Every structure is written in structure tokens, then in C-alpha cells.
């Protein structure tokens, strides 16, 4: 069985988590890069990665890499590749180009030359060329160009993998689904531990956690780009999906609560959870969404995890001046009621610990889209860390 070369794109900082996930799926020769993971394996592995990866944004199949001097070389490369092996002239295609330190003057012109090369290849071979489609293509082709090499990939995912198929309603500045799953992994939360998100927004963290606990493959209710490519075995794909459906366990024990100050937002989160196949959990309260001010939230058990994405300047401008005082009140409530809990908070505001008058026990730099953020860990005890440090120094 031939080994193919793949690249899984992911948010920065999630590369090690994604690499471990791919290893569990059977990937070989794994290598982490900034923003993704290189790996090898059969085509079935790529289908499994699209279906099961919680952390990847896209799965790309590498089809060619060559040196180039100018855009004519890149046209020639696109012109000679056996595209008909992957799709036919009836397909609607889209070409995207990313460059790093490339000497080429115009990426738009280079993109056009790649399209010309592909279309000329089909016109000369069968007398008909594929059509170009930006919004809803059948086939997405990616070219990555550095200072010496051009690499062509086929996007096997189609729509980004964080689009699980259940999100319609969005809160303010929604957290992407694969980022939410990554935060849960980085926090060390496991399904046997209570989980709370007091700033739930559209419910992404809670829904991802519930799907993890129930063994619901994240891609179970959507389609993928590889389904329109010739080289994939669709019978094998149907069997793979049936196996994933059989693994779902909606009877799993879990305690996941999420809340938000807005009743409207809570309603949207509940609707998202229903579309995510979690109605049974909502019915018996193992997963719950409620209206509650984060400054007044209370624990459901002696110990547990808080994983949350509180509002910060970029989300709340021009209200950012009030966020700090609000988070101070949130912290006061956590110290009063959540002793024994572990709280993780994602924010782009590096002053969050001082605003909360808490000392973080750990921080992880992570990028939420273009924003450089910190994922702060706080071990909740009665009183603040600062007062305990002062007591230790005075003794």
C-alpha cells in the first residue's frame, strides 16, 4: 500500500496535540512544523483524519514539489501534472496561493498562471477545461511557494475542519471548534471531571467537551472535499462512517455546565448543542446551558475544571475599560466558591492575572486567529495567591 504525504494545518501551539492525535490514527513519519504537522500514510488515513481530527483545520495531500525560477516554471509545473488522476474537466476548481520569502512579484499573477496551466492541461487532453469557482468549488488546490520551491496540494477537507456542521447561531467573537478542543486538551481536562464555562457564548467549549465524552467523531455530520476526488474508495469511506456512528455513546457519564449573562446567547448555544446531536444530554442535565452572570456562578461539585474564553479588549471595545473590573469580581467569586477547582482562561490581555489579583500557575502562548493570546491556569484556593505569598514572606 503506497504511502502518501500529507500536511495537517492547525492553529499555532496545537501542533504537538495534533501530532499525537495523528499518531493515534496510524500516521507515520510525523514532523511538526509551525502551523501544522507533516505525516505519511495510506489514503484511508487521510479520510480518518478528516472524520476524526478535533484539532486540524485542513488536511492537504501533497501532489508535487519542484524548484522554480519564475512564474513560467510554475505554469509549466501546473501544466504537466496528471490532474485527471484526481478530478475531471467537469469539476469546478479553486486555486489559492501562499508564499513565504518568494521572489515572485505578484501572487495574483502567479495564481492566474497556475489556473492557466491546469486548464490548458485539460483542454489539450480532452478538449474541455474545468471552470473556476471561488465560493463553492468541487476541488480546492493550494500552492505553497518559498524562495526556491513550489509545492502543490489538494485540500481533502473542503470546508475547514472546524466547521463541524452544527454551528448556525454564533455569539460575539465565536471561538473556533478546533481551538475549543485544543484548549480542553491543553488544560488536561478529561470527561470524568466536571467542567464549567461561565462565558459560554455560542457554547463551543461545552459542545466540544460533550462530543469528546460521547465519542462523537467531529466530522460525522458533514461532507469533505476528498469525496469528489477519483483516488478515494467511497465504499471504504461509507464503512468508516458507519464504524464511527457505532462508537457514539450518548449514555456516557459527564457533568458539563455552561452559562452566559445573555438569555439570547444561551438559547443559541442550546440550539447548537441540539444540532450537534446532544439532545439526550440536555434532557437529563448532563449537559446544561443557563443564564447566569459569571460573577455569581456557583460550583456543582467540590472539584472540577473551568475552561473559558472571557471577553477581552478586542471583543469588547469600547467596553474594555470595564472588563478589568468585571474580571476582578469574577475572581472574587471564584476564590470564594471554587476552592479546589482549576481554572483556565484564554485571553489576549496579558494583564488578566493582575486584574483578577491572581497569580497564574502556568501560561501558554496560543494564537486565536490573528490574536496572540495567553491561556492562563489558576489553581483556585481561598483568598488570593498574592496574600499567601505575603504571609509566607512575613513568617
Walk me through what this model shows.
The chain has 395 residues and is an alpha/beta fold. The chain has helices spanning 15-24, 43-52, 71-80, 107-126, 177-187, 204-214, 234-246, 263-275, 279-284, 313-316, 320-337, 352-356, 385-394; strands at residues 4-9, 28-33, 36-41, 58-67, 92-99, 131-132, 139-145, 149-155, 195-197, 256-260, 287-291, 305-308, 342-347, 362-368, 371-379. The chain has two domains: 4-155, VC0802-like (2-Layer Sandwich); 177-216 and 224-392, Rossmann fold (3-Layer(aba) Sandwich). The protein is built from 13 helices and 15 strands. The protein has an eight-stranded mixed sheet with strand order 2-3-1-4-8-7-5-6. Strands 11-10-9-12-13-15-14 form a seven-stranded mixed sheet. A hairpin with a 2-residue loop joins strand 14 and strand 15 (371-379). Residues 314-320 and 384-395 have low confidence and may be disordered. Residues 45-156 form the THUMP domain.
Amino acid at each position: 500500500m503506497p504511502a502518501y504525504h500529507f500536511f495537517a494545518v492547525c492553529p499555532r501551539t496545537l501542533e504537538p496535540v495534533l501530532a499525537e492525535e495523528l499518531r493515534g490514527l496510524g500516521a507515520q513519519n510525523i514532523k511538526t512544523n509551525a502551523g501544522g504537522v507533516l505525516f505519511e500514510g495510506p489514503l484511508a488515513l487521510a479520510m480518518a483524519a478528516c472524520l476524526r481530527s478535533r484539532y486540524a483545520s485542513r488536511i492537504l495531500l501533497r501532489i508535487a514539489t519542484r524548484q522554480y525560477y519564475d512564474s513560467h516554471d510554475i505554469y509549466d509545473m501546473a501544466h504537466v501534472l496528471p490532474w485527471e488522476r484526481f478530478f475531471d474537466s467537469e469539476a469546478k476548481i479553486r486555486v489559492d496561493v501562499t508564499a513565504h520569502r518568494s521572489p515572485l512579484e505578484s501572487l495574483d499573477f502567479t495564481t492566474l498562471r497556475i489556473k492557466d496551466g491546469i486548464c490548458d492541461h485539460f483542454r489539450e487532453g480532452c478538449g474541455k477545461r474545468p471552470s473556476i469557482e471561488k465560493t463553492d468549488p468541487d476541488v480546492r488546490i493550494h500552492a505553497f511557494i518559498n524562495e526556491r520551491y513550489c509545492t502543490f496540494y489538494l485540500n481533502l477537507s473542503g470546508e475547514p475542519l472546524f466547521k463541524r456542521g452544527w454551528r448556525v447561531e454564533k455569539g460575539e467573537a465565536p471561538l473556533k471548534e478546533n481551538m475549543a478542543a485544543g484548549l480542553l486538551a491543553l488544560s488536561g481536562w478529561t470527561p470524568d471531571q466536571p467542567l464549567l464555562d461561565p462565558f459560554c457564548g455560542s457554547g463551543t467549549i461545552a459542545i466540544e467537551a460533550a462530543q469528546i465524552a460521547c465519542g462523537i467523531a467531529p466530522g460525522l455530520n458533514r461532507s469533505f472535499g476528498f469525496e469528489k476526488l477519483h483516488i478515494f474508495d467511497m465504499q471504504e469511506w461509507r464503512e468508516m462512517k458507519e464504524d464511527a456512528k457505532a462508537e457514539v455513546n450518548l449514555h456516557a457519564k459527564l457533568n458539563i455546565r455552561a452559562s452566559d449573562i445573555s438569555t439570547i446567547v444561551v438559547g443559541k448555544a442550546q440550539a447548537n448543542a441540539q444540532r450537534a446531536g446532544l439532545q439526550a444530554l440536555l434532557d437529563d442535565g448532563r449537559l446544561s446551558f443557563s443564564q447566569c452572570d459569571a460573577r455569581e456562578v456557583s460550583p456543582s461539585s467540590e472539584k472540577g475544571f473551568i475552561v473559558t474564553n472571557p471577553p477581552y479588549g478586542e471583543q469588547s471595545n469600547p467596553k474594555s475599560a470595564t472588563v478589568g473590573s468585571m474580571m476582578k469580581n469574577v475572581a472574587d467569586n471564584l476564590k470564594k466558591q471554587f476552592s479546589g477547582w482549576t481554572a483556565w482562561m484564554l485571553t489576549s490581555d496579558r494583564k488578566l492575572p493582575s486584574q483578577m489579583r491572581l497569580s497564574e500557575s502556568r501560561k501558554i502562548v496560543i494564537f486565536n486567529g490573528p490574536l496572540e493570546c495567553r491561556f492562563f491556569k489558576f489553581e483556585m484556593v481561598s483568598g488570593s495567591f498574592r496574600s499567601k505569598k505575603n504571609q509566607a514572606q512575613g513568617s
